[in-house]
Amino acid sequence: MPDATVANLTIREDEAAHFGKLAAEWWDPKGSSAMLHRLNPVRLKFIRRAIDMHWASDVEARKPLSGKSALDVGCGAGLLSEPLARLGADVTGVDAAPENIAAASAHAEGAGLDIRYMAGELAAQDIGTFDLVTAMEVLEHVADKRAFMRELAARLAPDGLMILSTPNRTPQSRVLMVGAAEAVGLIPRGTHDWNDFLTPEELRDLLSGAGLTMGEPEGIAFSPVKGLHLSGDLSLNYIVTARRA
């Protein structure tokens, strides 16, 4: 399930509307975004480790992003933006759906967090560059993926770190993420088009075309015992870092 539907010049209006309708439930861990609430701690584990490695942070530090800026592209209602702020970052969130931005702003205010949120196309935002750029479950909802990746790269500071996650286009993801998960209501119906999923090789090519080098992907897998967890199994979903080549 995505956190967003931001595209570069080609936002899919139907998808923006789809996720905008979910805005009111975004922060309900038992609502339509329940899967995101389960996914978020797994992503944050990867993000924290990547931050510590990239900037040689103290692994015990509570705010390893102190003094750094972060851009959360496709921020939804702020499920990732808020933890990034708590890690010390000066956070900006961008999303295609105005309803999501309204929900994100209200929730951040209630939590006492100073996060700048903006609605609309990333290319239209005059926001400069950032030390950390994230786009979680976004690429599969972007019409012009190469243009979008170039725009992401343009927002990354010279020594910055980018972190992306996206479903893999495999038979397993078609059956479990599009078929079973949407059928039983774990993910809202109409969330995914399997043909828009990206393999790691395709993502590596997109990043290379934008002047970025992709790190080793790590899978986000599911098992009845562990639930969602980081894994060497890339068949459903995966998360990667990227840096300037």
From TrEMBL:
Positions with a binding annotation for S-adenosyl-L-methionine: R43, G74, D95, M136
UniProt pathway annotation: Cofactor biosynthesis; ubiquinone biosynthesis
One matching Pfam family: Methyltransf_23
Keyword Nucleotide-binding attached: no
Keywords: Methyltransferase, S-adenosyl-L-methionine, Transferase, Ubiquinone biosynthesis
GO molecular function terms attached to this record: 2-polyprenyl-6-hydroxyphenol methylase activity; 3-demethylubiquinol 3-O-methyltransferase activity; polyprenyldihydroxybenzoate methyltransferase activity
Enzyme Commission (EC) number: 2.1.1.222, 2.1.1.64
Catalytic activity: a 3-demethylubiquinol + S-adenosyl-L-methionine = a ubiquinol + S-adenosyl-L-homocysteine + H(+); a 3-(all-trans-polyprenyl)benzene-1,2-diol + S-adenosyl-L-methionine = a 2-methoxy-6-(all-trans-polyprenyl)phenol + S-adenosyl-L-homocysteine + H(+)
Enzymatic class: transferase
Family from the record: Belongs to the methyltransferase superfamily. UbiG/COQ3 family.
PANTHER family: METHYLTRANSFERASE, UBIQUINONE BIOSYNTHESIS O-METHYLTRANSFERASE, MITOCHONDRIAL
Role this protein plays: O-methyltransferase that catalyzes the 2 O-methylation steps in the ubiquinone biosynthetic pathway.
Name of the protein described by the UniProt record: Ubiquinone biosynthesis O-methyltransferase
